[in-house]
Amino acid sequence: YNLSGKKQDLKGVSILITAGPTRELIDPVRYITNRSSGKMGYAIARVAKERGADVTLISGPTNLPRPEGIKFIQIETALEMFTKVKENFASNNIVIKAAAVADYRPKNIANQKIKKSDGDMHIELERNPDILAFLGEQKGDKILVGFAAETNDLTQNALTKLKKKNLDLIVANDVSQEGAGFNYDTNKVTIFSATKETNKLPLMSKLDVADKIIDEAVTLLKKE
Ligand code: CTP
Ligand code: CA
Fold first, then answer.
1. Could you tell me the pTM of the whole model?
2. Which residue range or ranges hold the DNA/pantothenate metabolism flavoprotein C-terminal domain (predicted)?
3. Side-chain-side CA neighbours of residue 207 (13 Å)
4. Nearest bound ligand to CA 152?
């Protein structure tokens, strides 16, 4: 993917992107998280910026360098991501939710490091808000793009999420495949649209996947 050779075709378009995992604290030294590297979301942010869009990236903890020339917001927990997404939602035309948001958080965060005892221990978890479903309820004229990382029943799971969250597009990837998903620089995805189109892409770099996702979102935006 040639980042610098891109035409500036997204001038005047504002894109909000979320990326990376969230981190849900258990006590001052422990947390629950997931295997998201943030690479897919950061690739989307870089490509969107190269194409001339105004980009806001809300990111959980990653090891990736901060992309330049964009509005960057660092968060840790799902609740923090939710707050920042709500603050930034209104001013954007397209929202792409590549983040792997933790579905649950520990119900209580201990003030002090939890000490072990002889028996087993249990952590009570409570549901985090579904950020994307919330956005879907007040979508207005925005283009909403979600992700679905699945290990099984890819098409059915993705289409259920597309509908349930009122999305325009969902990017589905099978994370059990070699070369796709967590931590790879490549990805193999299928993009499903609310208008029943299916775009099954071959294995390609995450930057190329990002380009395709943006193409589809912008096409929908221009149709409106
Ligand atoms: N998502 C979100 N807020 C959450 C959970 C998920 O915004 N609390 C978003 C993700 O960013 C992603 C999409 O919803 O774009 C799908 O996430 P995924 O984890 O695949 O689906 P869930 O709806 O959480 O269902 P499940 O994990 O049970 O498969
Ligand atoms: Ca989930």
1. 0.96
2. 10-218
3. 10
4. 1
